[in-house]
Each structure stands twice: as structure tokens, then as C-alpha cells.
Amino acid sequence: MSRDNQLKERWEQLVDILSNQFSQGEDLDLDAIIYLIGVQELGKVHREYKKDEKLNLMHIAICRLLEPYGFYEFEFFDDEGWPHYRVKEELPTLKAGEQSVLMKEAIVSYFIERELIK
Q1: CA–CA separation, 62 vs 16, rounded Å?
Q2: pLDDT class for 1, splitting at 50, 70, 90?
Q3: Residue 108 and residue 7 in contact, taking contact as beta carbons nearer than 8 Å
Q4: Left (φ > 0), alpha (ψ -120 to 50) or beta: where does 70 sit?
Q5: Cβ 38 vs Cβ 44: under 8 Å
Q6: 22/115 Cα distance (integer angstroms)
Q7: Is the separation of the CB atoms in 13 and 117 below 8 Å?
Q8: What pLDDT score does 103 carry?
Q9: What is the pTM of this model?
Q10: What's the CA gap between 85 and 5, in Å, rounded?
Q11: Could you tell me which residues come within 8 angstroms of residue 18 by beta carbon, excluding any fewer than 6 positions away?
Q12: Dist. CA 102–CA 31, nearest whole Å
């Protein structure tokens, strides 16, 4: 099986699992899954977030997802428990489709690590 097909299958499996768990039958999109990862990384799942906090959660998720690729490094948790990362290497300029593939690969790896998918 080609790498692209494997990623596609794993992505579809992951979207099905997360959509069944977190939405009422509607498939979650990439941004929604990134948001869920941010909430997971923060560890405060049962609360409402303001708009700016939601953006911060997505930023946390992106940092965490791209950390294994060498773009970010975890630094510390602040007094409120929010993780902070520093930039290790600037992200290369990518086209929208390339960004999407990179994020899907990182998300799939994240959930393989957590044994939600194989």
C-alpha cells in the first residue's frame, strides 16, 4: 500500500472515530480535530473556551503536532497550566495542499502514539 493511500485510510478512520465521539453525525474537519488535540493537550476538557482561548488551543495543538518534526520544542507550563513551546526551526513555505498533508500526517501519528488507530 502506498504511503498516500495509507495516510488516506488512517485519516478517514480517525475522522470517523472522532466524529462519532464528538459530533452528531457530521464529519469533523481538520480545524476541529486540531482544536480537540489542543483541548487534550491542555487537559481541561469540561469547560467553555472564549474565542481567543480557542485560537490558543489550536496553536498548542499545532506546536505539539509539529514538535516531532523539529519545528517546535516544549518549554514549560505556565501558572494556569497552559503549555508553552518555542520555535526551533521556521516552517518552510508550503502550499495549502502541502500544509494539509503535513498536518494530517502529524495528526495520524499523534493518534497512533495514543493507540486510537493503528
Answers
A1: 21
A2: low
A3: yes
A4: left
A5: no
A6: 18
A7: yes
A8: 96
A9: 0.91
A10: 32
A11: 28, 33, 36
A12: 13
| 47: amino acid identity, one letter | R
Predicted confidence (pLDDT) per residue in 9-42, tens digit: 999 999 999 999 988 879 999 999 999 999 999 9
Using a 10 angstrom Cβ sphere, with 0-12 exposed, 13-18 middle and 19 or more buried, the burial of residue 106 is: buried
**CB-based contact 6:99 (threshold 8 Å):** no
Among the listed residues 4, 31, 26, the one whose alpha carbon sits nearest the alpha carbon of residue 16: 26
Which tens digit of pLDDT belongs to each residue from 14-23?
999 999 998 8
The arithmetic mean of pLDDT across residues 87-98, rounded, is 91
Residue indicated by cell numbers 476538557: 45
Q: What percent of the chain has pLDDT over 90?
A: 81
Return the SS3 of 35: helix
Kindly state the cell numbers that stand for 72: 517546535
